[in-house]
């Protein structure tokens, strides 16, 4: 039979029944045959096992040319070894990967990025990319190399270039893809490992960094707020400590000077009254009035000193402070005290609370000193409109239509304190029926604002 070039198989002067003889080099051995290359082109040769020689062997093939997609193939009747040579060199594809039909069945090498693997029934398919071109590489099932591959590894694949098409008729002009047929895992080499910083890992790292920064910012903000709160608390403590020390100093000064002087003046007036006696009635009346005024001033000074030395009394809720203050006074005087609280207590301004405490103590003091009462009922009521203090005793009472006796300043002081907090003061008493006092301050009063407790 005549010798033919691979590119000239199945030309017009050669029918399917003619035996062709081709000489070439085996480029790759595959199941059922091998790929053969001469100086014009490459093709696939179907051959029996005894007629298959290793890649690089130069052989003479006699057989029948058969129609196949894109290029005829040979069905070998006889394969004769001419000589054994070195493994053939593959054509390295560079630049872009446009479809090259002339390379159909040629041995090529290509550098690409490994994306994923797909397992078929009898083959393993590697999905690869180079630039914007995606293609597949087919090889028989092997696990050895596949276990080493990681997505985004850079691979060099050496195999047979095969043109493909999605058109039902495989014509060269309709070719729209290609694949690489690999002989085995040795046709795959890892050029460069995938970078550790993948997109997913980068997103995870950015997410962790953002979360960490957010936590740090939140922690810093909380710490700043905590430091501000602690600083404010320390400042208040220092301020309260300084105020407490100053109050103690003023209390000592008042006790050692004003209160002692008032006590001395009171004793001197008592001696003067004893000496004058009834010899000079006008002078006796004047000195008695002065003596009562001094007594009143001394009691007020004593109460002021007591308040200065016990500032915590005004820092507590008014109901607790009032109950403690009145119970102490009741124990001193022997008066039985009934103290009740109604409604939800409100926190009043400390100066307002001080006026209520002073009014309550003065009412109890008057009930004991002037009314000779044995029992006192005190009610502190909180309503939606305001706060009310009601005081009732079983003392002797008095005629409210008569002028206030000279030297009696208790009622006047209570009215003045009620006026200072814009409260309504009412008094009801008659001889033999005790005394009733009521002080009502609406929450609309400018002195009734609910504020943070401070030392007065």
Question: What is the strand and helix layout of this fold?
Answer:
Blueprint (H helix, E strand, L loop, with lengths): L18 E12 L2 E5 L4 E5 L10 E10 L6 E12 L6 E3 L12 E14 L3 E8 L2 E8 L13 E11 L12 E5 L6 E5 L6 H78 L4 H29 L2 H4 L2 H16 L2 E7 L7 H20 L5 E8 L3 E8 L16 H11 L3 E6 L5 E8 L14
Low-pLDDT runs: 451-456
The share of residues in extended strands comes to 25-35%
- The averaged pLDDT comes out at 84
How many separate domains? 4
Secondary structure tally, helices: 6
Main beta sheet: 5 strands, mixed, barrel
Strand order, largest beta sheet:
1-2-3-5-4
Can you tell me the CATH superfamily of the largest domain? Answer: Histidine kinase-like ATPase, C-terminal domain
User: What percent of residues adopt helix (DSSP H or I)?
Assistant: 25-40%
Q: What is the CATH topology classification name of the largest domain?
A: Heat Shock Protein 90
How many beta strands in the DSSP annotation?
A: 17
Cα Rg: 57 Å
What class do helices, strands and sheet pairing give? alpha+beta
Q: Rough shape?
A: rod-shaped
Through-space gap between termini: 127 Å
CATH class of the largest domain: Alpha Beta
The H/E string reads EEEEEEEEEEEEHHHHEHEEHEE
């Amino acid at each position: 039979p005549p010798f033919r070039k691979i590119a000239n198989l199945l030309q017009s002067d050669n029918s399917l029944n003619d035996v062709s003889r081709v000489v070439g080099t085996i480029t790759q051995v595959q199941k059922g045959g091998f790929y053969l290359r001469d100086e014009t082109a490459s093709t696939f040769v179907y051959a029996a096992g005894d007629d298959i020689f290793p890649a690089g062997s130069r052989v003479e093939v006699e057989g029948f040319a058969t129609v196949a997609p894109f290029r005829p193939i040979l069905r070998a009747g006889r394969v004769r070894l001419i000589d054994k040579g070195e493994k053939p060199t593959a054509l390295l594809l560079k630049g872009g990967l446009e479809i090259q039909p002339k390379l159909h069945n040629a041995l090529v090498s290509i550098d690409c990025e490994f994306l994923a693997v797909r397992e078929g029934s009898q083959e393993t398919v590697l999905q690869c990319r180079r630039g914007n071109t995606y293609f597949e590489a087919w090889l028989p099932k092997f696990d050895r190399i596949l276990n080493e591959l990681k997505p985004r590894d850079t691979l060099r694949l050496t195999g047979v270039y095969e043109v493909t098409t999605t058109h039902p008729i495989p014509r060269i002009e309709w070719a729209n893809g290609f694949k690489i047929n690999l002989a085995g895992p040795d046709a795959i080499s890892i050029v460069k490992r995938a970078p550790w910083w993948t997109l997913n890992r980068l997103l995870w790292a950015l997410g962790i960094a953002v979360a960490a920064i957010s936590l740090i910012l939140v922690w810093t903000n909380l710490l700043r707020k905590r430091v501000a709160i602690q600083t404010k608390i320390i400042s208040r403590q220092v301020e309260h400590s300084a105020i407490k020390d100053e109050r103690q100093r003023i209390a000592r000064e008042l006790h050692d000077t004003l209160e002692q002087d008032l006590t001395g003046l009171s004793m001197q007036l008592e001696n003067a009254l004893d000496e004058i006696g009834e010899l000079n009635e006008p002078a006796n009346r004047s000195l008695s009035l002065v003596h009562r005024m001094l007594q009143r001033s001394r009691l007020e000074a004593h109460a002021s000193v007591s308040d200065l030395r016990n500032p915590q009394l005004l820092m507590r809720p008014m109901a607790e402070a009032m109950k403690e203050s009145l119970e102490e006074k009741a124990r001193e005087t022997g008066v039985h005290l009934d103290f009740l609280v109604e409604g939800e207590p409100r926190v009043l301004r400390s100066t307002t609370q001080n006026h209520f405490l002073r009014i309550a103590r003065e009412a109890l003091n008057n009930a004991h000193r002037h009314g000779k009462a044995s029992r006192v009922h005190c009610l502190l009521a909180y309503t939606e409109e305001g706060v009310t203090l009601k005081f009732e005793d079983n003392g002797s009472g008095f005629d409210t239509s008569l002028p206030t006796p000279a030297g009696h300043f208790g009622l006047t002081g209570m009215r003045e304190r009620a006026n200072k907090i814009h409260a309504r003061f009412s008094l009801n008493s008659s001889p033999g029926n005790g005394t009733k006092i009521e002080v009502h301050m609406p929450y609309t009063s400018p002195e009734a604002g609910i504020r943070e407790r401070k030392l007065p």
